[in-house]
Structure formats: structure tokens, C-alpha cells
Specification:
The structure is a single chain. By secondary structure, the protein is mainly beta. Helices cover 6% and strands 51% of the residues. It is built from 3 helices and 36 strands. It has helices spanning 2-21, 300-306, 350-353; strands at 23-26, 38-45, 48-55, 58-64, 70-75, 82-89, 93-102, 105-114, 124-129, 142-145, 151-158, 164-173, 178-187, 193-200, 206-213, 220-228, 236-240, 246-247, 251-255, 260-268, 275-284, 289-297, 319-326, 332-343, 346-347, 393-405, 411-417, 421-424, 432-436, 441-449, 452-460, 466-468, 479-481, 487-490, 493-500, 503-510. The strands form 8 sheets. Strands 23, 24, 25, 26, 27 and 28 form a 6-stranded antiparallel β-sheet that branches. The chain is globular and about 55 Å long.
Length: 511
Amino acid sequence: MKKSFLLLFSLVIMLSFALKAQQITFSEPDKDDPRSYSFEVLGKIGGKILVYKNYRESHTLSVFDPEMKLLGKQQLNMPDRLIQTDFLAYANHFYMLYQFQRKNTVHCMVVKMDSDGNLLSEPMQLDSTIDASGIGSNRLYSLVVSEDKKKIMIFKINSHNEKSHVLTTCLFDQNFSLIRKSRIALPMPQRNDFLAEFALDNDGDLICVRASGTAQNDNINKVSLITKKANYDEAHISDLAVKGIYLDDIHIKVDNLNKHYLITSFFGKQRRGNIEGIYFTLWDKNSDKELLNATTVFSDEFKEDAKGQNGARAAFNDYFLKNIIVRRDGGFMMISESVFTSSKGSTLNRWDYLYGSPFWSPMDYYSWNSPMGGIGLSPWGRNNSFFSNNNQVRYYAENIAVISFDAKGNMEWSNMIRKNQFDDNSENFIGFSMLNAGDQLNFIFNMQEKNQNVLTNQAITPDGRINRNPGFKNVDRGHEFMPRLAKQVGLRQIIVPCMFRGYTCFAKIDY
């Protein structure tokens, strides 16, 4: 009898812990919202959850309490011909950066707001560009922020001269006091040279790559690392070793603790050939030299494990890098996802997207290329005409590959999180979000069960073991989650947008 009581008591404790482990709190759908609008979860600011919403000329800020009850909506007075908005959130306030065009001048502005959306400062101009008549609806200025959010930079590129692109940078501190404005001419010796993957370290130093393809919209066979110190008006260009391989999707990750820059990409051994593995270069900031340049070829077993609709040889042709996580010991993890699209029975491969994932456009750094000219696009920009409303597009998002490397670039382990998702004319309900809880990485995504999307959570431990957690059971059947658009707002807390009876609402998930 005593043993039965203890067993029952233990089961109650375990059940109570399980129920508390994942708690979902929903906001009420706002019936005043239009059925379709753009939004962005800003994060947790002053203990409140803030969401920016935009529909045509309307710009609002919705403020939720910790229980996802709507506290109020703040109407934001924005100028006409708004081009772009960006947000930078801190513990008790946030900054809204925006670009707008008035006549032939583009203005880049910033305003400081509190957790209720009230102004804490008057709008301040960060920079302006005169005679930008060809900007259209594309951003002119791009934003990069350091990991500690203490250095902020806006920049623009003038590519009017194809042999020398002019990079203009404005570096600010966390209060948006100007530290330095620089204007640098960067040589572009090859016909297909372009700039990509800008990043800012905690010292305010800018990093990017200059890449060149064998032909326009083709593989990359030459890469140079460009670094610009915070207090200097010149850039240092270093060629990276790329021998006998072809890259396609370059990423940069700053390791502020170890003062390293990681440059990585998938690679193939032939032009437009199958993806064979991972290329990476580890650059030491202090010595300004290359510490490591290596490639890791995927084994046949790993390719077999990764294959979806492709065969083993072409298993990674639909994978795109999504996240890079650096560890304190200098090691790093790479997370990639298999994503592709089809239209009218024709499946597109990575070469049809030209550069990056088919689900969203890469950052277009070339929205202004001439004082009086039209829009200049990077030769690797996605061909958006394919995604017009005249074509029915089916979006696919399949397995997630997680690979861990030590500080010397040796692969420690690899594992595969399995999923099979697709949707027609929308990618909002497929894909995944990731919550980094410190002791494990949680991957959150939808899986179909009995024609219903069920929100699923699988976690991976530091040694590569996968914990397949049960689906979220206390979810109203009427809610459809959009995990790809989620945002982590705390160590074990994430905000996931969802649809309920045709209206958008938001779910707070606590682990």
C-alpha cells in the first residue's frame, strides 16, 4: 500500500512538472486588424510584449502584458513614401529606424520609444542621400548591429562604377551618438564581383566579403574578406583560399569572445554540381590572419540520412544554412534546412534561386547604384518574378541538419531532425524556429497529424542527442501556428504568431 502511494505521488509530481514544462498563453484576435497585414514581434520590453503591425499607410504598435492581454495600441505617425523600418530592442526601450523618400532625397531616421510606444525622443536624422530618384520601394540603407547591441551601423553602397563600389558607413553607439562616418572606395576587379554578408563586431569593426562567380548567377570561386576598423576610413582586403571547389551561399559569424570571424559556405566540386560538404575559414582578428582554412566532405552515410526527395548523391542540394552558433571553446554548430519550391509540376533547385533560400529574399545591398539611375541589384538577388500571383507555388520545408565542429574544424557529430512540410502559396506555416535554452536547442515546427498541423518540439543536446518531445496538447484546434516567424524573448520563452479563424494572434510559450 505504501509503495502504491509513493508511486502515485511520484506520477502526480512528474505530471505536474510535465504540465508546467510547456505552457502556452494566447492573445485574443484583434477584430479591428485587417485580414492580411505585415507584422514583426519586437520582443519583451519593460516586461511587456510589443508587436509592430503595418497595413498600407497604417502603422501601429500593439502592447501585451505578460498574460498576452492587450493593454493598448499606439498609432505611429510615419511619413509618406516609407521605404523600410527596422527595430532595435533593449530592456526598457526600443529604437525604430525608418527610411522615407521626399522628392529625390532619401532620409534615414531614428526615434526612441518606451514599452508603451510613447516617444522618448524626437525623430533624429542619421543620414540622407540626395538625388536618389531611382530607389523605388527598395531600402537604400542597411543596418548591422553588434552582438552586445552597443555598436550600431547603417551603410549604403553606390555601385555606379562597376570597377569600384563606394561604401558609406555611419557608426553609432547604443545611444545613437555618431562615432564615425566613413566613405570608402572598394575595388571590384572582376566583372562578377559583389559584396555580401555584412557583420559588426562588439568593437564596432565592420566585416564583409567580396565574392566573384565563374559567371553571373553561378558558383562563387573567389572570396576576399574585407575588414574596416571602427576609427579608420580605410578597408583591408584579404583573399581567402578557395581551391578546386565552388561555393554558393556564404555566411559570416562573429566570435566576439575569441576575437574570430568564421566564414562558411556549402561547396561543390563542380560548377553547378552537387553539394559535397562545408567550407570554412577561421580568421583571427588580433593577428589579422587566417587560422584555419578547411573543407569537410559529407560522408555517404550522412548523405543517406539527409536525403529527402533527392537521392543520396544530391541529398544536400536543397539545404541552406540558417543558423551558426559559436561556443566559448571556439567550436561551432551549423544548422541548415532543406527547402525548395515547385510551380505547375516543375521543381526548382538552388540554382534557380540564384542566391540563398527560396523562402525569402537575401539582403539587397545594391538598392542604389547611381545618382540619377535606376535600381541596381546584386547579381545574386532572387528572381522575384517567379513568385508572382499568376503562378501557384508549393513551398516545401523538410529535414534539419545539425553539425557540430570543434575549435580546429573537426566534425564532432551530426544529427538530423526529421520533418516533412509543404503548403501552397504560403510559407508561413512551414519551416521552424529555434529556442536556445543554454543547455539544449529546441526546434519548434508544425507536423501534420490527421490533416491538422500539430506544433512539435524536438530538442538537441550539446553532445548531439535528440529528445523527441510530445506535441503541445493544450492547444485549441482553431489555432494555426507560424513558427518560422517566431521570436525568442527570454531564456525559455518564445512568441509564436498564429492564425485563429482568419485573424492573426500571438502565443507565448514558456518552457
